[in-house]
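Example record

The entry below shows one chain as it appears in the dataset: sequence first, then structure tokens.
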Amino acid sequence: MNDERPGGAAPPAPADRASDPLTKIYVEPTNRCNLSCVTCIRHSWDESFEDLSWPAYRNLIEGLADFPEAETIAFAGFGEPLLHPRFPDMIRLAHDSGLRTEMTTNAMLLTSALAEQLVDAGLDQVTVSIDGTSDPSHGAIRPGASLDRIVGNVRTLYLWSLVKHTTPPGAGRGVKEETMAWLREVAGEPSPPIEMADYIYPLEDVLDSMPPAPVRIGIEFVAMKSNIHELPGLQEIAKKIRASFILVSNVLPYAPELQDQVLYDLSPTSHESGGDPRNPLWILPRMDWSRETLEAVAAVARQQANLSYLDLNLGQRNNYCPFIRPGSLAVSCHGGVSPCPPLLHSYTCYIRDWKKTFRRCEYGNLAEHSLGSIWRQPDYAAFRQRVRTFEFSPCIDCCGCEFAEGNETDCHGNPFPVCGHCLWARGVLRCP
């Protein structure tokens, strides 16, 4: 839409593709969802529901032929991908085009039949949203969700992936069903761990003795004051669903009442340096993660310290865009191409007691333009370059003027959209 297109003068796009790659595409199949989570962006917008059209999606996949460095399609955004009526077809088309396929889901709609379809279509990775380690705690954040059902659904998908991995190509329906029945019988549910004096010893799951399934499973946990104490319990859930990774993010308050739930009020500022008399660099070694060490390190961090752990500067990612720097873009459910998932929609949120209104940004629509022509637009190329140098005003550190209320411009004179407020660039918020 024209009123959401950025303006400003723009230098030419970089001539070297290696300096400006496109490697990952986030696709929002729909903005519809089967849940109404308390942390959801829907509490701060008023948009009509829409599914990504098949012609727009096909144009995207066909357009990626001009980007040989493209590797991954990640189905995510601000809706539940499984609600799209042709979602298995979307996976298959991407897979058949040589792309790795990932999805983020609440897994409530992941029936056994749908799981089998997704595995057969070529799904490579599933990240499931889990914000509590029991039905009551998870349901308090995601009303209507059942953790037991989610665990069962994802474990079933893993078993279907094993079926595909262990049966010969072209195996008939009967062979697959017999293999699945056998896996369900021998795998069952993992045994609970045995708690000993100083160690929790997990009993071996039958699946531990088998080669891992091709589909990689992960967990995404949104940490808040109300659920951070449940973080250790994710280890047992990960065992049940065969998760290979656990991604922990913070919450972005889309509603004022969530401001009291944030865990990053005392996070380091955007200051980055090798240390100076005003802000010395703390160089920390590997230590036991015990009550004594964590309390001491936490006390240091509360001083807004410049920290280095095993020679990794913990402040070096403060001004690092995890989307544009690695080479990604995002496609909304209405076909618009945005620089990143946070700019797919307009919304209101609350950061450091400031109410902020962010306007969505898109550089073209796949229903009207090719992916290549959108990517090569001078204003889009100029924005990517600004993000790589990240010479935006540090609005989060300041929050002292009207520029901090949105993403239109900043006190350095940068044109829309500006990113000095971005919590993803600070490493506070994470996406799979």
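Notes for this example: The chain has eleven helices and 15 strands. Residues 7-15, 199-204 have pLDDT under 50 and may be disordered.
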